[in-house]
Amino acid sequence: MAGSGTTIDVASELGRLVIGYDISPYRKDIIQSDARKIPLENNSVDFVFIDSPYSDNVKYSDHPDCIGKVSCEKEEFFTELEKVAKEIYRILKPDKVMAWLIGDHWRKKSGFIPVGIKMYDRLCKYFETVDVVCVTRRNQTSNTGLWHKRAREFNFYLRGFKYLFIMQKTNQEA
Ligand SMILES: C[S@@+](CC[C@H](N)C(=O)[O-])C[C@H]1O[C@@H](n2cnc3c(N)ncnc32)[C@H](O)[C@@H]1O
Question: The domain containing residue 58 runs over which residues?
């Protein structure tokens, strides 16, 4: 779920050996692959970072297997992301850590959906929690006067943060 490749660039800057995958690669150094079937051996990587879709609010591509086509209003959304969690568990070396970035969701029809908390619940089936970090959204387009005005006018909250779940693969088999 490498998207535009920010993670690859940051990892390279940190001197890490990095491989980025996406269902619909945006650049040549991202490998086409479904996050539910990652072409890596069991127990082979030191760290995984993932920024998954939060629902169907953004159109990432026309690829039929894009999980961002499934609304978080459906349980299927979490079922598919759990398959990704299981796959991450498979490829991580024992005792190594993964970090999953995810935000919540609000729609007029369905109201608030705690996507982060629901995903955290699924992650806990496989991993031990190391930490939960709130990542604030400082430079997002929703942090403008126009969106503040809309939020007051149409009575909704602006999401102020995303969750970063830092989870460890302990020796116990999931
Ligand atoms: C929130 S975006 C990631 C944004 C990225 N962090 C960036 O800086 O651009 C989610 C990504 O997940 C990808 N994706 C959706 N379903 C996928 C799947 N089944 N397997 C792999 N990638 C998938 C989308 O193509 C999209 O690029």
Answer: 6-168
